Structure formats: C-alpha cells, structure tokens
Amino acid sequence: MLNNIYNIFFIPEIFLACSSFVCLLFGLFLKKNAFRQTSNLAVFVLLLTILLVYYDSESNFANYKSLFSHSSFINFFKILALLGSITSIIISKDYFLGIKLKNFEIPILFLFSTLGMMLMIASNNLMSMYLAIELQSLSLYVAAAIKRDSISSAESGVKYFILGALSSGILLYGFSLIYGFTGSMNFDDISFYLSKYDNLNLGLIFGLVFVMVGLAFKVSAVPFHMWTPDVYEGAPNSITGFFAIVPKIAAVALIYRFCLVPFENFYTEWSQIILFLSIASMFLGAIAAIAQSNIKRLLAYSSIGHIGYILIALVAANDDGIKAASIYMFSYMIMNVAIFAILLSLKVKNEYLINISDLKGLSKSNPIVSLSISIIMLSMAGIPPFIGFFGKFYVFIAAIEQELYVLSVLGVLASVISAFYYLRIIKIMYFDESKSEVIINFQISFQSKIILSLSLFLIICFIFYPSLLINISASLTI
Amino acid sequence: MIDWPLVSVIIFLPLIGALIILFIKEDELTSINIKWAALLTTLGTFILSLILWLQFDYSNPSYQYEEKFRWFDDFNFFYHVGVDGISLFMILLSTFLTPLCILASWNNIKKRVKEYMLSFLFLETVMIGMFASIDILLFYIFFEAVLIPMYLIIGIWGGNRRIYASFKFFLYTLLGSVLMLIAIIVMYRNTSSMSIEFLQGNYFSYNTQLFLWLAFFASFAVKIPMWPFHTWLPDAHVEAPTAGSVILAGVLLKMGGYGFIRFSLGMLPEATEFFIPLIMTLSIVAIVYTSLVALAQTDIKKLIAYSSVAHMGIVTIGIFLVNQQGLEGAMMQMISHGLVSAALFLCVGVIYDRMHTREIEFYGGLVQRMPLYATVFMIFMLGSVGLPGTSGFIGEFLVIVGAFKFSSYVVIGAAFGIILSAVYMLYLYKRIIFGTITNNKLADILDINTREKIILIPLAISVILLGIFPNLFLDPMRLSLELIITNYEIANAK
Fold it and tell me: Which residues does chain B have within 8 Å of residue A405's beta carbon, measured at their own beta carbons?
C-alpha cells in the first residue's frame, strides 16, 4: 500500500515518465551540447529505473491491479528492455554526432518508447495494453523518420507508421471482439470467464486471431514481417540498432503474456497460429537473408529468424518454454548489442558500413574487430560454445518436453540454412582477398568499448558460469 | 595414480597456448616465435598424454582419471571428463598428429601465421575434449566446435576452390550434428541423465531407439564418412592445406567411428541390431565403389581421400560386427588409418611444396632424385594396402576374422576392397615414384630435408611398431570394448 504520496515517485514507470519530462526540459534549455548531455541524463535515468524495478518490485504499477500486473517474468523483461535501451543509447551516441544528427529529442524518444515498453510488458488489461503499444510505437515512428532530410529515413518512418497503424487497427478490432464476447478487459477476468467453457465461440476465435495478427506484426513474425527489412534499411543505423535490440523484447514478453494469461486454457486454438508463425519465420528468415547484400537487411531477416525460435518456446507453453524464452531473449539482446556496437563504429571510406562486401579485408586491417564479428556471427548461428547455442538448446529442450519433435527438427534444419549467411560474413572478412587497399576505420568511444567488451565477454564466457542466468530464468513465473 | 587433473590439463593446455599466442604481435620477425610457441605447446600436450598411457590401468574397463563438476544448476549436465581404453588412443592420435601438423606448416604457411596457429591449437583442444568427455552435451559442444577452426583452416589457407569446400564441409557436418542435438535432448528427457557411462544401459524403448539411432547415424555417417554421405570429403581434402588434410583424415574422421562405438553400440543396442544389415550394405558399397573411384583419380590428394572412405568402410564393418575381433580390428584400423593417411597426406605435401601441383601425370621417376622419400612413401603406401608387418594389416585382418562369424558375403566384400586398395595404391606409387624422370621440371627436385625427416620418421616408426606389436595398443582397449560387447549382448538377449 502507498502510505505516503511521495512514494508514488518511486514507482518505476511514474519515475521514468516524470524523468522523461525533466530530460525534455533539460534538453530544451541547454544551449550547447544538448544531444550529448541529454543522452547522458537519459542513461542515468534509465539506470535509476533499473534499480527501482529491481529493489522495489513489490510496490509498482501493479497497485493498479486491473490495469497492470506484476511478476518475476515481467520484472525480468522490464530490466532486459531497460538494459537494451541504455546500451543502445550509449553505442549510438557517437554515430549521431558523426552524421551530425544532434537533435536532443532522440534520447527523449527512446525514453518514452522504453516507458511504453515497460507498460506493455506489465499490462494486464486490453485497454492498457493498447495504450502502451501505441506509446512505444508512436515514439518509434518518429525515431525512424528522425533524419528529416533523408528520403529513405522519411520513407521508412511513413512505412512503419502506416503498417503499424493498420496492425494497431486490427489489434483494436480483436480487442473489441474479445471485450464484446467476454464482457471484460482485464486479463484475469477474461481468463476466469473463459474457464467456464470448453471451447471458444466464433466471435472469440476471430478476436483471438485478430489480436494474434496485431502482435505478430509487433514481433515481426512471418507473414507480417514485411516492414522489418525496409524500416531497418531506411532508418539511420543507430535507430536500427534500437529497433533490433529493444522493442522485440517487449513485444515477445507481451505475446507470451497474452497467450499464457487470458487464453491459458485454449492452448490448441492459439498454438496453431503460433506454430505456423514460428515455422514460417524460421525458414523465411533463414532463406531470405541469404540473398541480402545490405548488412541491415541481413540483420532484419536474422531477427525474424530468431523470433521464430522464440515462438517455438511459446508453442511449448511450459515452464521450460518461459525459461527458454528469457535465456534466448537475453542472448539475442547481447548479440545484437555487440554487433551494432561494431557496426556503429565502422567506417569504410568515411561512410558508415552498409554493404556486406565492404567488410572485405577487415581481417587484415582490424584483426580484433573481425574476430569479434566472427564470434558474434557464430553465436547467432547457434554454434557452441557461444551463448547463442544455449539459447537454442533451451528452446529445443522446451519443445521436446512438449513432444514437439517435428517442430524441433524443422527448427534445427532452419538453423543449418541460417548458418550459411552468418558464415558468409566470416567468409567475406577472412577468405576473400581484397585487391585494392580498402580503408576501414574503426573508431569507438570508451563507453561503447566497455559495452562491446562486456557483451563479447558474456557471449564467450557464458559457458563457464551459466547457472547465474539460468537460475534466474528458471524461477520466472508469468 | 595422479592426483592432479591430468585430463583437463591436456584438454586446455593448447587453449592456454593459443591465448599466449594471441598476445604475440605478428610481423616478419616474430612469426617464428608464434610457430615455436605453438610447437612447444603441442609437444607439451603430447608428452602429458603419454603419461596418460603410461599410468593407464589395463585391468579397468571403465573410465579413469575422472573429473566431475556440476555445471548447470537446473539439469544434470556436468563437466565430466575421463579416459577409457577406447578414447585413450584417440586422444594420443590427436596429440601426436598436431605437433607434426605444426611442423609440416612451418615454411609453407606464409600468410596469417598467427591465426593459423590459433586455429590449430583451438582445434586440438576441442578434439581432445571431445574424446575425453563423459557427458553427452559436453561431447556435443566439442563435436560442433570442431567445425569452427576447420572451416577457417580450409577457407583461409586452402586451394582455389576453398570457399566452396569450406562451406560444404561446414554445412554438411552441421546438418548431421544438429539432429544429434535433438537426439541428446530426447535421451535426457527420458532418463534425466547426460552421462555417457550411465546411458550405456539400454534405457530406451525399441521405437525410441530406432529414431535416436537414425539421428546419431546422420551425424556420424557424415563425419566418418559413409557412402553416400561422403561427397564433402574429397572436396575438403583437396582444398585444405596439407596440415588441414592431415587432421581431417587423421582425427576428424575418427570422430564418426568413435561416436558409433560409444553411442550407437553402447546406448542403442537393439536399434543397432536392427540396422546392422543397412550398415553392412553401405560399408561394402563404400569399399568397392570408392576404391574404384580412387583408381580413376588424377589428383593424388583426391585419390587418398577416396581411399580414406574405403578404409572407413572397413572400420564401420568392424564396429557393427559387434564382436571382439571386429571391434578391436575397427579400433586398430582407425589408429592405423590415422597414422597412415596422415603420413600419406604429408608425403603429398612434401612434393606439393616443391612443385605446387598434385597431378599424378606431372610426376614420375621420383626415386631417381629422392630415394629417401621413396622409401618412407613406400612404408606408408604398404601400410595403407595392409601388408603384414605394418599397422594396416592388423586392423584389416582382425575385421575379416570377425566378419567370418557374421557372414561370408561381408568377408568377400571387404576382401575385395582390400585387393582394390592394393591396386590403386601400388598403381599410384608406380606412376609417381618408379620409372625414369620424364618431366624436366623434376630434374633437380630435392630429397626430404631434416624438418621433413623429423615429421615422417616418427610416423614410419609408429606404423611399423603398430604392425609388429599390436598388443601394445590392443591390451589397454580390450576390456573397454568387452564391456560394450557384453552390454550389447545382454540387451539383445532379452
């Protein structure tokens, strides 16, 4: 209970919302170095929010029981999302300064979007879920189009906005059907109402399908993935980094909670949809990435593929599945942070790296960087002994626990196909002889270097002490 | 006995060497330091692994030098390593061949020496780790990690079509081994254990065994390789640098045979019984078909690569006879092939370094200029053919003796393969070594130098040693193999 009115400011979400406004004003009144200072402040605010989430996990927004919920799973994903935004703000700072995009609004947009994600993860009500999704998406639409004088950035922003609005519309229609047929917006009430029935009626099935479509759009699962490569490609690299690292975490947590809380008892209904999304994402992600020459499009398809694996764990729908999802999401975040920390510091002929073929000769000029990229790629491909392998391993454990043999075999086959394009990057760096001397600059700020080294350390050394993360994930309840 | 973690030290010593090399700055002058560091590390590992053999208790069929630490809190996955009679010689083979590989690449690897040595040392760690692990997941981690250094070795330092070969190698073997991952998880789910020792007790229902067996078969048949899954091997061998081929033929192929003994025979006895006809058919086809293909090759390395597939066919026959002679023969054949084919690839490397071609047509009459080379080459060639007194004979002989208990058709197939192996090896030898020098470019080719002598003579000695004193090698492995056969017979007698 909140005895003291001041305690309200220690609720992480309220703290983050208020601090975001403070940051906004701070940036507005600063004359010099507004972008840099605001970014630093934003990182500081997010760090404090992590502390609040960690230490004050009892008294939070969950006091508004009907709107938001509270569990270890929610807290884990909140912290993951916060960590993701901190790291992506830090690694992108130099990039923004490099391309002279010094709007101080960028970190503010990230802050609001992160706030939206925290609410999304915690939401326990259709209405709060919708509002939270909109809060995070609107910030992201603006962020995608932030480079106003660039046609591609504007295009990606508009594309993202239109498709995002469409999916929100579908989502909302699904909500209205669910509300209409159950008479409640609260997840627990819906679950209670539904527990009286053996199967869903037609209206509810339609509602469920519509909501699934909307959520599949948010996690960019095939066939609702079309926006991902285009938005990744068009947006400035650092915004792409944010897109790749953070919103996926929240969207995955949301789709897990939506499937496992209100529709817990109707596994057969939603699992078919998720099963299809999962297989299609794994294979399309693996096959479509092979033909890409743009590193950002490649990473977009790679993230689509990763979503496929996370959805396998959702189809498994057991405790192992939740554990697998949290481990996989953690490894996904770490690997993406590492690869974007490198991409945002690599310059080929004074341009930031876009084409994969420009990596040619990197192993000669920057052996350490190319070694790091190779390790990240092998980890993404799921080759032991790196962290990516354990993510996949736990996903398959969950799937086999549920006797989903065919799905697991399809999963490993897709992972073999996807290994091809990860290996291709290593091939370009190491095997291809560069005829002309290519000038590749790797300039990285001290802070990003720390982030990069830490994430590489986690990728390589996870195997030596896995129990730390695994014990946390094993204790999560949805 | 030894009270310090000998096996772990052997596994991780090369990795420590690799870390040291990582911090040596590479330029023209210091690349020699890198080579020495790598050589000394691998030699140290070899000496330590000899202690393993000397202190080995011959009367103990199960694992020795065991080390066990809990690794994952949430399920029974241990860091559990140890050595038994089966893995002892596999480890020795790895530690013996790696320093020779480093020596063999002393002068002919000129670019990226540091990365090359790092790959080899990492490769040695994962190879030894794989043979020493008593936990299936640990085994799997090492088994897959082998792909990383080998992919780089073929891809960076290989020949003209190296990129094609490295991708084919990686994806082919990955496809096989990911199915094994599923099988491992299914095994864990059924028994809550990942210990290889524990799982060798026939815990699975018949139908489960069949599926598990096929999953393991997919990875080991690709690795060993069996016909028709062998197509990656000639490409990988031809494109790999000499030392890469040596490790590939010498150790990596043995991972398949080792896996068959441990997993298929040890854990899935009833399914093995069911699939024996399949294996025998594939093996005989492999022996006859690849021997004929080898006869038609114009590239020396490709010829030896196809002969490897044929020799591995003898190994799979021996393993799936599941009797004492068969298994001992298969093990001896694996060790012998590890030495002989490695040595043959090194011999090819010797003339390739001088002439930069592997076309058989190009050579002829080398005995005139290189008498010493002709002698060592002959020892290895005869070892490959299986002449009594060389290592190849013991393995082939034991397998054929064992096969008589099973079926005389298998004997005919295997014997036919052995005859063919004599045909293609002697024919190869005749074309390269004998006759007069017709190609002017060979007129002033030099005989093997000291470095090459240091590489080839230990191999020649061990090939003959293995042929004359096979018990030196058979005694340590006998009880471990008997244990597997007993388990197998108990399971199938039910």
Answer: 182, 186
